[in-house]
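User: I'll paste a sequence; please echo it back and then give the predicted structure.

Assistant: Echoing your sequence first, then the prediction.
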Amino acid sequence: MQPRLAAAAAAAVVVAIAATGCNILTPQATTIDYDASDGVSGATGTVEIHNAMLVGAPDGDALNLAVTFTNDGEPTVVQVRVDDASEQVRVGEGVTTFGFDGEQIVVPAPSDLVLGELRNVSFQADGAEPSGLRVPTISTDMVGYETLAPSAE
C-alpha cells in the first residue's frame, strides 16, 4: 500500500502545481494600468491626471474639462491647452477635482468639433514636461453626463 499512497500523493502535488502555476505564463490582470471610465489619464511633473474628458452640449459652444489631479508635491499651477484655448488652474497638494460639483475648466468648443471624437489636450505643471493626451469629447445627451455641461460664466 505504501507505493500506491506515495504515487497518489505525488500525482496530487503535480496536479496542484499544474493548476496554480499558470500565472507563471499569464500576466496578473490586477497589475495592468488602465482607465476604468470614459476619460484618460497621464502625468506632468508631480501632478497625475485622472479621468480627463471634455463634456459639452450637442448645440453648445463650450466644453467642460472634467478632470481630477493628484499632486504629490507642493501646490502648483497646471496649464491646460485645448486647441488654441489655454487655461491655468491651481492644483493644491493632494486631490483637486474640476468639472463636477464645483469649479469648472471651460474652453470654447472648436468649430469642427464632433462629440465622440478624441481631441488633443496638453497639460503642463510648473517647469515640467508637458503631457499630451487624446481626450474624449462626450455629449451631455449621454446618460450620466447630463449635469456636466459647462456652466455660464
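DSSP finds one helix and nine strands in the chain. The two ends are 86 Å apart (CA to CA).
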